[in-house]
Amino acid sequence: MTLKETPEARYERMSIKETELRQQGYQYIAGVDEAGRGPLAGPVFAAAVILSPDRPIIGLNDSKKMTEKERDRLYDLIKIEAEAWGIGYATEKEIDEINILQATRLAMRRALSELDPEPSYVLFDWIKSDYNAHPSEYIKKGDLNVNAIAAASILAKVERDRLMIELAKQYPGYGFEKNKGYGTKMHYSGLDQQGPCPAHRRSFLKKWQQRKNDFGK
């Protein structure tokens, strides 16, 4: 039987990359992650976080593996204890105009531009941005292996989830408060009954349109 990794042990394991970079002379190491590439509605968000080695935040992990309560607690703690943090997003219109990959990169650049101090090295979670102001690399499954990326994943997801809850009040009937814009049964039902709202990504509605066309045959 495999012993479950404790939050303390996970923090130490996920500190290795940042520790190595600091030993190479990079003082401010930013982790970057995104939230919301796949939904049919809402912006795509990104966050950038520089953690302080003197203020460890125990409990960091991939945001998708945490409860909402755990994310909310760490969201507040990250904003207090991190050396710096920034949040950026790209709108539904920008996603439609430049595609989701380029919009994600745009959101990442916007998040990085908010950092003060500026990063001396940047670690991206898999999707490498076109950001080239400082040395950078991408880490496969970075939100499971690097604390700064995990922290960014939490900020990005909580910010986006909270926005989708607000959009649910503005555009009821799609279930945004529950599905956060993803293509659930309730969401498709709302589209069938009401059609798209301003929060929808028109370039992401091909599946719904095809489904609607097939159903109408």
Commentary on this structure:
There is one protein chain. With 217 residues, the chain is α/β, with parallel strands linked by helices. It has a single domain (7-216), classed as Nucleotidyltransferase, domain 5 (2-Layer Sandwich). It has helices at 7-13, 16-23, 68-81, 92-98, 100-113, 142-145, 147-170, 176-179, 185-194, 206-216; strands spanning 29-35, 44-50, 84-90, 121-125, 136-139. The chain has a 5-stranded mixed sheet. Strand 1 (29-35) and strand 2 form a beta hairpin. Helix 3 crosses helix 7 (147-170). It is globular.
Please state the structural category.
Answer: alpha/beta
Largest sheet: 5 strands, mixed
What is the straight-line distance between the termini? 54 Å
Write down the domain tally. Answer: 1
By DSSP (H or I, 4+ residues per run), the number of helices equals 10
CATH class designation? Alpha Beta
| Helix content range | 40-55%
What's the name of the CATH homologous superfamily? Ribonuclease H-like superfamily/Ribonuclease H
How many DSSP-defined strands? Answer: 5
Summarize model confidence as the mean pLDDT: 94
Which consecutive residue ranges, at least 5 long each, have pLDDT under 50?
A: none
Strand numbers in spatial order across the main sheet = 3-2-1-4-5
Q: Could you please say which CATH topology applies here?
A: Nucleotidyltransferase, domain 5
Q: What's the architecture, going by CATH?
A: 2-Layer Sandwich
Strand content: 5-15%
